[in-house]
Amino acid sequence: MEQKKLKIRDLTMRDGQQSLFATRMTQSSIDRLLPLYENAGFYIMEVWGGAVPDSVMRYLDESPWERLRKASAAMKGKSLLSALSRGRNLFGYVPYPDSVLEGFYKEAIKNGLNVMRIFDALNDLDNVKESIRMINELGGIPDGAVCYTVDPKEEAPSGFFARLFAKKPEKIFTDEYFVEKAVAMEAYGAKIITLKDMAGLVNPSRIASIMPKLKAALKVPVDFHTHCTPGYGLASSLMAMIHGVDILDTNIWWFGGGSAAPALELIYVFARKLGIEVEVNMDAVAKIRKELRSVREELHDFDLVKTFPKEFDPVADVLPADVDEQFDRAIRAAHANDEEALLDACHAIEAYFGFPKPNLLVKEAEVPGGMYSNMVAQLKALQAEDLLDDAMRLIPKVRRDAGLVPLVTPTSQIVGSQAVSVALDRKKGNADYSNPSNQFISLVKGEYGHTPVTVDPEFRAKITGSPEEKAYDVTKYKKPENPELPEYGGVKLASNDEEYLLLELLPTVANGFLKRRRAEEWEKVHAERVKAEAAKVESKKKPEEPITGEVLSAPMGGKVLEVNFKPGDTVRPGDVILVYEAMKMENDVEVEKEAVIKRIFVEPGDIVGTEAPLVEFM
Fold first, then answer.
1. pLDDT of 239-261, one tens digit each?
2. Cα angle at 45 between 411 and 32, to 5 degrees?
3. What distance in Å separates the CA atoms of residue 63 and residue 74, rounded to the nearest whole number?
4. Confidence band (pLDDT; 50, 70, 90) for 144?
5. SS3 424
6. Are the CB atoms for 306 and 300 separated by under 8 Å?
7. pLDDT at residue 162 is higher than 50
8. CA-CA distance, 85 to 510, in Å (whole number)?
9. Which H/E stretch holds residue 524?
10. What are the phi and psi torsion angles at 567 (to 5°)?
């Protein structure tokens, strides 16, 4: 019987650093890692997209395109390089016309990108199908990502009869919902399908239910992407392995766990016990892991956790018997679909190695960790921290009112912010939605796309002024100007197509980034001119070869106005060989005897000192 195999998508340099270190890994750190990655054998390496284009310009003053080019050059085609795209929103925050999407995809593939993972915050297929088509036509590999989410928890009705007769809302996010989205993406041309669990909300039992259905319905490979924030990540990844997932998203040890994806090393231990071959060179991973620790130390100021897990090499190290038993116990529980025992064993493993504990607030609220922290920050700014519980309880209502949107960037931020606003409305005695945000209005209007459940027309009219759904009009998109910069010699702000694409995508951030590039270029050109002028003057002061012939020197210092002869010419007594200005007067320099000119050390415009050599004769 052929051994089962598992391909790995390494997230360390994109999603891993974004989840744990606010996307602050510098190009110099990545340059140290890339040579070690060349022979690691990862099926895919996620190195671009998501917050990278914005963050590397905004915080690091580095070029996103250079980051992609360097990764491609270093890997030499040995691993596929991938990026994350928000479909119609690309890497930005508003819907873009097809011309911008195609321009970015074309330039990215030209610079070495292979796989574009495409998702939409609403799971609106209309927002991803054009991207899938474009990536295929441009020679890339489209990876269709279905965003996992859950139906909101219901508030318990009060009173016996309310409980008896309360009608439960219909479940929307069933297994069939996700399978249907996946099948449609495959039909559009997706070559990989990812179940993308951005918030880490998919529990192991749900994976045991949904993964076999995805595998049965799809012909293309299935990838599973999750995070460990609420404590499901490791256990759900194990369950996905048991149920035939083709590709698993992981991070290397120091960038794993917590709000990031599981650590590859723990997945490797499970795979070895399950008889699954992980298609990765673990010796190469060990070298990456060693260097990655120093990289994490450099990211200390942005480290959400601060404490490091224990050192661990799954190939060389022998686990203590009680810890090894926890791995076996987890596998037995997964096969038996005993979720409680499975989670208990996985949490014991993570605790032994020192990975962060599950975030119980996120687990209970069933919202992404970033959404929760944003709400806390918003209430703190409003000096209304006491409303946090009320705002959290309002999330299901706001989600349902807005069309039961999944909670992923940017909808998670929109819903969370509006829940806070409604909590404040109620505290002040105002009607709900007295202050809808512009983003919430756009969401309810339909500008972000079709919501999973149709928004009530009356509610839409209340929020937007019209009961009709209205899509974002991409014809309103205005291409940004590319002005000339007189302070830098009149050059354009964006000097080529790839720079102009950055200006289209993130105009405010790119504007400052590109101005700094033009300033550097101007200063470099200016410095080179000064250097060249100095070299020219120096060469005239110090002839390249020793002076051996008779020399005509300057009688006094001044500025050369004319040079009337050239090397090789014969001059005779009385010939004016050159004219120079001194003491505000023009002075002729005459020849006293016949001679042949060997060299002339000056030219019009030069300033010469007294007794400076002017002409050497044969």
1. 999 999 999 999 999 999 998 99
2. 115
3. 17
4. very high
5. helix
6. yes
7. no
8. 18
9. helix 507-541
10. -55, 135
